[in-house]
């Protein structure tokens, strides 16, 4: 049996880490958003791939919420002295990943580089980019169109979010590893991790063929709400949803995913927020404070999926 | 009036720094060996250019003798964890130079990148690569042919040195800045810094046209001996000269440079070592312990050049 998880940044990485820990080695594929990727200081930076990789390698920086643990910043000091760009901070340790990725990509694609980095860090589950073709999330705001990291990091999500598009996505193909997981006869469940639906999960679903694959699934697809009592656990989801006039509620998440999902995992704080028959609901404590929470929630999500699988679809 | 200095690594950088300090701003060009350059972790590393740049920016690491002061090594730790190459150590601060150079070279050549890095570090004299075309020093040894940094750093000069060649040099052109300095009507002197004659100065002289330019000079050309009482101040020069059956003496240095030089600066410890009429000799304390020594020696070298210039050539 195998499981496919779709993940974006930090929240997705946490659940992915829980799933990775409890599923037999080699049975989990995590397909990760690459719409946030960008070129910086001549390096390809893949924030979501790295968040998932660092979480599974148990080297993620818990205090910062991004990057590598025990990070230092001598490189940034030197770049500042040299008059280089400093709005996007690259730690000394984090930098090694970007340098190695660039080196590996001189002989292979992003999938191969991601695979090799995971292997070297001792990660036994499979992390794949949603696509090996470049896709770039562009946010339309009241200050014009901004590449995602400019909107997110440089301007700290301050501009008013109007819409998002994924440049290049119409020509992108799902990565081979993603396609293999989608078509795996042993597939047991598809999990949409609690990443931002508009920023992190939407680009993955926008890769041609992915949405159709999931719509035509014969296994349960479960989403996790990224909201607890109207608040995003982390990140700008709540602000953006509000600016778009979408409620930060499980009902809005359910409406957003529509026919894509069979089940939605919500926080106990939101019980009673939905009354429709579909999707099926499972309420629990969805806040992941530590790896124990990650494993517990992952286990509950898989049990929920199996329960849905046992009933008629 | 202007001065042209040819320099390699640490010894050359020290005298170049002394010359830079005492000459009026904008009147010194330092043409630097690029035969030691190599690609590492996907970056272009230019050890000699960086040694000169860091010395003139007063940010060189005096303890190590290479790299940047106050260096840290978190990046190397992370590269080691990722199974990357660690035999050539890149400090966190040093790395910023290589990253910026790569970025600058996406839009220009090595000369332009070197110029821009120098400008950003507040260097007012001109540092130019000997050529913008790639030249790679290859050392033939009893363990086979080795790229220079493999011989020098990876194997710590342990293999027996048999000969050196400069791959690509026959097609290389002197950089525009180097040519401009060589042809400057205001040129007052050419200084061959106390860098290794075979490893550091020879590749510069091997760039087509350079030797001819210097042979046909109408200003004094002064070399500094890299030896004191039969010992190299730093680096493998003495070992290599011995392996080649060349004495580590001012006489051997004079014979090596031949008609290229008018004067040779030697240590007072070596007075009496030469008795020929040419080159003219100037003996002083040539060990540069600190910036004051660098300025004092630079000043003596320039006085020596001017004295030679005043006499008939």
TrEMBL record, chains A, B:
| UniProt keyword annotations, A-Z | Magnesium, Transferase
InterPro entries of this UniProt entry?
Answer: CofD (IPR002882), CofD-like_dom_sf (IPR038136), FbiA/CofD (IPR010115)
Q: Name one GO molecular function term.
A: LPPG:FO 2-phospho-L-lactate transferase activity
Q: Does the keyword Thylakoid apply?
A: no
**Gene3D superfamilies on file:** CofD-like domain, CofD-like domains
**What Pfam families does the record tag this protein with?**
CofD (PF01933)
Q: What name has this protein been given in UniProt?
A: 2-phospho-L-lactate transferase
């Amino acid at each position: 049996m195998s499981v496919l998880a779709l993940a974006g940044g930090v929240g997705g990485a946490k659940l992915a880490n829980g799933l990775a820990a409890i599923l037999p080695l080699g049975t989990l594929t995590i397909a990760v958003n690459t719409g946030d990727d960008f070129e910086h200081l001549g390096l390809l930076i893949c924030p979501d791939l790295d968040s998932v990789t660092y979480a599974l390698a148990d080297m993620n920086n818990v205090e910062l919420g991004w990057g590598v643990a025990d990070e230092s910043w001598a490189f940034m000091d030197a770049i500042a002295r040299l008059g280089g760009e400093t709005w996007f901070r690259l730690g000394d340790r984090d930098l090694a990943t970007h340098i190695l990725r660039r080196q590996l990509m001189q002989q292979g694609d992003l999938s191969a580089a991601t695979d090799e980095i995971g292997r070297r860090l001792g990660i036994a589950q499979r992390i794949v980019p949603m696509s090996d073709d470049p896709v770039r999330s562009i946010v339309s705001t009241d200050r014009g169109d901004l590449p995602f990291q400019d909107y997110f990091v440089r301007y700290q999500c301050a501009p008013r979010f109007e819409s998002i598009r994924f440049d290049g996505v119409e020509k992108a193909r799902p990565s081979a590893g993603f396609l293999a997981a989608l078509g795996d006869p042993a597939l047991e469940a598809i999990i949409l991790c609690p990443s931002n639906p508009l920023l992190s999960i939407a680009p993955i679903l926008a890769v041609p063929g992915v949405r159709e694959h999931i719509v035509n699934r014969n296994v349960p697809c479960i989403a996790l709400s990224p909201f607890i009592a109207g608040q995003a656990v982390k990140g700008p989801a709540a602000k953006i949803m509000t600016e778009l006039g979408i409620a930060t509620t499980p009902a809005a998440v359910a409406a957003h995913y529509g026919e894509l999902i069979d089940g939605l995992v919500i926080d106990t704080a939101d019980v009673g927020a939905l009354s429709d028959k579909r999707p099926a609901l499972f309420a629990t404590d969805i806040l992941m404070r530590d790896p124990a929470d990650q494993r517990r929630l992952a286990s509950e999500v898989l049990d929920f999926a199996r329960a849905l699988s046992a009933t008629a679809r």
